[in-house]
Amino acid sequence: MEKVYIFDTTLRDGEQAPGFSMTSEEKLQMALQLARLGVDVLEAGFAAASKGDYEAVKLIAQEVKGPVICSLARALEKDIDLAAEALAPAERKRIHTFIATSEIHMRYKLRMSPQDVLERAKRAVSYARRYTDDVEFSCEDATRSQREFLYRVIEEAIKAGATVINIPDTVGYSVPEEFAQLIEDIRNNVPNIDKVIISVHCHDDLGLAVANSLMAVKHGARQVECTINGIGERAGNAALEEVVMALKVRKDFFGDLYTSINTKEIYKTSRLLCRITGSFVQPNKAIVGDNAFSHESGIHQHGVLSNPLTYEIMNPEDVGFPSSRIILGKHSGRHALKKKLQQMGIEVSEAELERIFEKFKELADKKKEIYDEDLEALVYEEVMKLPDDQPVSVLHYQVQTGDKLLPTATVVIRYMGQERTATATGNGPVDAVIKAIQKALDLDTKLLDFSIKALTPNTDAQAEARLVIELDGVRSSGRGVDVDIIKASVVGFVDAVNRALLRKSYILSKDRIREEGTV
Ligand SMILES: CC(=O)SCCNC(=O)CCNC(=O)[C@H](O)C(C)(C)COP(=O)(O)OP(=O)(O)OC[C@H]1O[C@@H](n2cnc3c(N)ncnc32)[C@H](O)[C@@H]1OP(=O)(O)O
Ligand SMILES: CC(C)C(=O)C(=O)O
Ligand SMILES: [Mg+2]
């Protein structure tokens, strides 16, 4: 078994992308999670970039245990000094220094001759070695560099004391076969290359960052630089979650390679980054996108329900994904519908399922996704119609409110033929009236969700209240519409309670289901 080291650069290259800047505290929060994820090296930032980044690297060096903490530095003594200073508190530290080796970068950007670049690289590496014996050197734009010169620079960097040699595809120009060949060529042409770890750092300008990284590993690279969700300069870097899971899932292809990543932490790490940066991944993103383990079409759903491996090459729980999700839509079939109803605690007979299925398809043609609440409403309409004499009705309510009054409500309700009265106070008039109804009912009703919106943009608009409640473990939703927001809320709440009571008795009536030939 050989290890592939995971070098995470979410907090350095990832942060370089527009809109992904993080404060020191946010970087620390992310770094602590990356340590839980099990990354081997954590590039905390570029200490010379700004006072803030210096502080962030220092904070992470102080607080984060486990991974090697690293800072980037140009091949300049002042950058290396700052990196070393910021990294000082770390238990294990790495200085990562770099300089471009391609003709175009040397001529137009650095305005340096190849000989000067070679000298600068040597000096930077040996200078960094004064501070730590873990020094990484990168030949920026390696894939567009002249081969013989690239070999020379790497050879001199190793002589100067580099312990990791990183080969970046800085502009995402390479293609997998070519990149694999470059790694092979470096291994065959650079003296003492076997004494150091070969690392790769690929960008995604052609959508090939992960493929290039994996092919490099197949051909001898043993460190991959990557970022959570693939964030990074321009189109981003290789996505950590994709590299790690490809190596894990395709051991038959990659051989006995392993990483130290605790894959169950992947999803959590991805979501944390999304929350911190406010930038969410696209739904179809591999491994961590919302749809990565979702199935909407009937044939797939039937397959997955029979055996998840029919359409899932990895277990969602292995990456910490909540679970594979059956999404109901116009492509879904009866197997999935039946399963969904069961998950919602609704048991129906075959005849009822047929009726619901027909209505469900009609609705799905009009609506992109069918949510649990839509399905619930449909089931109520088709098989659990509320009777005219509902268990609960509100006979009268009265609410007092004002800027100097504690909102107080009194209600008179009828519950199972019996009249009951109660008074309650609340944070506002709606809160007070709902609390009064709850008190009068004297049942264990928990309000889980409440929203109210105006259906048109005027002050005399109809208001629509939507509520979700739980009554003795049975969830249900209710809806009320009225020009008066208090009335809309009362109607919605009572609607939800009646549905919960009805559903409770419905679920319990197993005899009826058995008689009709149940599922
Ligand atoms: C491929 C990559 O991802 S490389 C990392 C990219 N990341 C960043 O650039 C983020 C952090 N950068 C910064 O905050 C700033 O660029 C700083 C603080 C580092 C430098 O700022 P400034 O001094 O104003 O320089 P500026 O950014 O305008 O230009 C870069 C300078 O560094 C030089 N330079 C670039 N790379 C290197 C290198 N690897 N080694 C030595 N010098 C370098 C350039 O030639 C240029 O020099 P000049 O000022 O003498 O012309
Ligand atoms: C600093 C180096 C490794 C880099 O980010 C790149 O070349 O893309
Ligand atoms: Mg980069």
Strand order of the largest sheet: 2-3-4-5-6-7-8-9
Mass-distribution shape? elongated
Instruction: Enumerate how many helices there are, as a single number.
Output: 18
Span between termini: 49 Å
In the CATH hierarchy, what is the class of the largest domain? Alpha Beta
**What's the number of structural domains?**
3
Q: How is the biggest beta sheet arranged?
A: 8 strands, parallel, barrel
Fold-level CATH name of the largest domain: TIM Barrel
Find the count of extended strands (DSSP E, 2+ residues): 18
Strand content: 15-25%
Share in helix: 40-55%
Structural class: alpha/beta
The assigned CATH architecture of the largest domain is Alpha-Beta Barrel
CATH superfamily of the largest domain: Aldolase class I
Radius of gyration: 31 Å
Mean pLDDT over all positions: 91
Unreliable stretches, pLDDT < 50, 5 or more residues? 510-519
Bound molecules: acetyl coenzyme *A, 3-methyl-2-oxobutanoic acid, magnesium ion
What does this structure look like?
It is a single chain. The chain is α/β, with parallel strands linked by helices and 519 residues long. It has three domains: 2-277, Aldolase class I (TIM Barrel, Alpha-Beta Barrel), CATH 3.20.20.70; 294-383, Recoverin, domain 1 (Orthogonal Bundle), CATH 1.10.238; 392-506, Alpha-isopropylmalate synthase LeuA, regulatory domain (Double Stranded RNA Binding Domain, 2-Layer Sandwich), CATH 3.30.160.270. The chain contains 18 helices and 18 strands. The chain has helices at residues 24-37, 51-63, 77-87, 103-110, 114-129, 147-160, 176-189, 209-218, 240-249, 251-254, 266-277, 298-306, 334-343, 350-366, 372-383, 429-441, 485-508, 510-516; strands at residues 2-3, 5-8, 41-45, 68-74, 93-100, 135-140, 164-169, 197-202, 223-226, 257-258, 294-295, 325-326, 392-402, 405-415, 418-425, 445-454, 463-471, 474-482. The strands form five sheets. The protein has an eight-stranded parallel β-barrel with strand order 2-3-4-5-6-7-8-9, surrounded by eight helices. Strands 13-14-15 form a three-stranded antiparallel β-sheet. Strands 16-17-18 form a three-stranded antiparallel β-sheet. It is elongated, with a radius of gyration of 31 Å. It binds acetyl coenzyme *A, 3-methyl-2-oxobutanoic acid and magnesium ion (MG). Acetyl coenzyme *A is lined by residues 13, 16, 46, 48-50, 74-76, 98-99, 109-110, 140, 170, 233. Residues 393-519 are annotated as: Regulatory domain.
